[in-house]
Amino acid sequence: MRLTDLDLTEAQVAELSDVLRGRLPDVAAEAVGEIETQLPVLVRPHDPRYAVFLTQAVQQGIGQFVELLTGGDGRLEELRDFYRDLGVLIAEEGIAQETWQAGFRVSTGVAINRLTEAVGSLPGVTPTAVAKVAQDVLYYLEQITGATAEGYADARSAGDVLHHRRKLLELLISDDPSPDAIRRLAVDAGWAVPRTVAAVALSLRADAVVLRPGVPAGALAGLHLPDPCLIIPDPAGPGRRDRLAAELKDWTAAVGPTVPVTQAGLSLRWARRTLDLAARGDLDADRPVHAGDHAMPLVLSHGAEMMEHLTATLLAPLTRLRRSRELMETLLRCLQTGFNASEVAAILHMHPQTIRYRMRHLDEAFGPAIRDPDRNLEYQAAVTYRLQIDALSDPSGS
């Protein structure tokens, strides 16, 4: 039903539409307040996500109803998807079915009382029109309650797998998990243990319109944690960044370094540190922020652990070459001089032809990345750090 279906003039419909839309924020706020008062089990002060989810659920439900009623673009199927997701979340959080159904009853009562008050306050609107609005509120909220029940039932039927996957994620992000323990729990969780993983730290955007991010295929979701996260398998695959950006569009997300599966906790620590930088406005967070793209700010903020990871990652090609220390010293001078063979030769007191020979080895080992001016500082920092650490461990230079 829409207002145009009632026995109202065009002017009355326009006036009533304005009134209902104007009352929407107050109605939603009152409904949230009543739910929090009558059902304190739904209020978890230690986890701010709950306040966000509760407010979203009420605002989406009442707001979309008003849009449908007033002839606006009410996207009912999109709303049903939202409430299916809510049902999944409720089940995953262990909230009893009776509790969330009671929350809907409270919200429905407030909506009926306030919206019918708004309709009935206008001159010329008959009691029959008011009753029809109340009836339509009930029917509409029955639809979204049904969608929530569908999501709830689906999540409960997959409860055992979800339980094992949560346990597996918690094991992976713990300190020094054993490979055997990971393999055993992965079998119960139906998760193929990958060679590498990356952790993703998440923070819900203020303007988000969904309750959860899309979870990439094969990922483990830690959305039940106070600081939600994901574990992504084999994150360096082709097209992975673009897919992740699309799936996490409603979240501010930071992706930690790619690491062996037993070091997922390390990746998550750096993902969360990167997320902190994004929250402070130091990084552009319109898309998922990758820790590896911002190594220097992270190193400056958090010290040697990230420096070790940066060094190991950037300088890995040198470990496969003979006389790697000499090549590392040459690489540092090349980075400092813009790969000018004559200048490097003068600094190292060597023949330019020898330097050009070494440069060819470096180009073959590293590819074009070594000459990328945007990464010059990172490579210089990594080489300088490695030479200093090597000098401390072996002062003779042998």
From TrEMBL:
It comes from the Bacteria. InterPro entries: CdaR-like_regulators (IPR051448), PucR-like_N (IPR058663), PucR_C-HTH_dom (IPR025736), PucR_C-HTH_sf (IPR042070). Residues 14-173 form the PucR-like N-terminal domain. It comes from Actinomadura napierensis. Residues 327-383 form the PucR C-terminal helix-turn-helix domain. This is PucR family transcriptional regulator. It holds the Pfam family HTH_30.
